[in-house]
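Sequence in, structure out. Go.
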Amino acid sequence: MNRERFLLESGGLRGHDRNHRLDDLRTRRRHRHRGRKGAPVEPCERAEAVADAGLIGDRYFDDEGTFSDREGSDLTLIELEALEAVEADENISIEPGAHRRNVTTANVDLNDLVGEEFRVDDVLCRGIERCEPCSYLEAHLENQGVREALVDRGGLRARILEGGTIEEGSEIALEP
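Output:
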């Protein structure tokens, strides 16, 4: 979708009169046994975002994540609506944070933000690529079918261009 059509049809995000927001925020600390995967994802009310690094306290900030060398690992996002659709369409319930993304959004079409700049409150980000589900997620959740159910709705990898504080309830807006 081109930018002009995106802005006209959606008002910048999903719906003109909707609250485009950060619904849930989590960090993944490195596993206490270096080199092991599966450290728990922890909820937090707010986090400091650092340009070209990530969220302070997150394992990707410390270059300890599986995809640390991949651009866009600063911040990962998933849509609340996608999680609800997976539950409704596939009868697969994904508990908060189990998807292993930093941010769950509400009323934000993340696929349309690939290549776009957007703000989470005062933090400027650029959508880098879709965050498609991996086999590790399916194994971690011990739920066959979750990987396939999240294809094209697994979220977004984003680079942080300008840091600041993000918190639950933060407004998400397309950068003009």
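Check: The first helix runs from residue 3 to 10. The CA atoms of residues 28 and 167 lie 16 Å apart.
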